[in-house]
Amino acid sequence: MAGLSDLEYRPTMARGTAVAVVAAGVAAGAAGFRALVKSRRWHLYGRALRRVPAGRRVAALTLDDGPYPEHCHEILDVLRRRRVRATFFLVGRDVEAHPELVAAIRADGHELANHSYSHRRMLFMRADTIATEIRRTDDALRRAGQTGPILFRPPNCAKLLGLPRHLHRTGRPMVTWDVEPETAPGPAADAGVIVARTLAGVRPGSLILLHPMDQANAATRAALPGIVDGLLEQGFDLVTVSELIAEAGRAQARGSA
């Protein structure tokens, strides 16, 4: 009986081990899939603009979502008083709903950029829907006065195949970021923590991600003056993303001269 018991027990162990191995493989695969989908650095086509090589202390503030009437002017006042410019990644439907806010952003010299039309995750979106989401927002930003190439950032940085392929075919980089003080390394609901993370993380050529216009992000709005003041005290010039790209080009030209 002892031998029979062993024979019955061992396959059970093998099945259990196999299930555990498969589960671990699935979990690892899921983690890898999530990492690819949310990666700020890698995607399957084209290039991601996460940080640029810069020859001096220069960085870009990037402000996502909206524009929303509740806090837009408050944010503009902070930037105006400190004479810095930022890049606003705006949602097309909100651009159309609040043209007066977009005009105020543009009048202060900030850059208008594309954050999709509906702010839907663009992970498994059809190719024609991706094109429409981007084109409708481009058109709204052009009507608002934005000239030159329009930068694009996907909602939640979510992408897999269709969106990177569309951007690659149309010659546009996917603008991401390398400093994420609101959520990395973990969610921060304290303004002081957001300021400290930003000042510790910014390097020459950094792109800083913030969401100060969202109603719920009171801590980010409270942190914005400290972020700007702290970076200025560290000797950083705060510019738009397009200006940052141009600065990188000048640094590369100086290096090859």
TrEMBL record:
Q: What is one Gene Ontology biological process annotated in the Swiss-Prot or TrEMBL record?
A: carbohydrate metabolic process
- What keywords were assigned to this record? Membrane, Transmembrane, Transmembrane helix
Pfam families the UniProt entry points to: Polysacc_deac_1
Superkingdom of origin organism: Bacteria
Stored InterPro entries: Glyco_hydro/deAcase_b/a-brl (IPR011330), NODB_dom (IPR002509), Polysacc_deacetylase_ArnD (IPR050248)
Q: Where is the signal peptide, in residue numbers?
A: none
NodB homology domain mapped to chain residues = 57-239
- Keyword check for Transmembrane helix: yes
Any single GO molecular-function term of the entry would be: hydrolase activity, acting on carbon-nitrogen (but not peptide) bonds
* KW Cell membrane (keyword) present: no
Q: Transmembrane region positions?
A: 12-37
**Listed PANTHER family:** GLYCOSYL TRANSFERASE-RELATED (PTHR10587), POLYSACCHARIDE DEACETYLASE YHEN-RELATED (PTHR10587:SF125)
Q: What is this protein called?
A: Peptidoglycan/xylan/chitin deacetylase (PgdA/CDA1 family)
Organism encoding this protein = Actinoplanes teichomyceticus
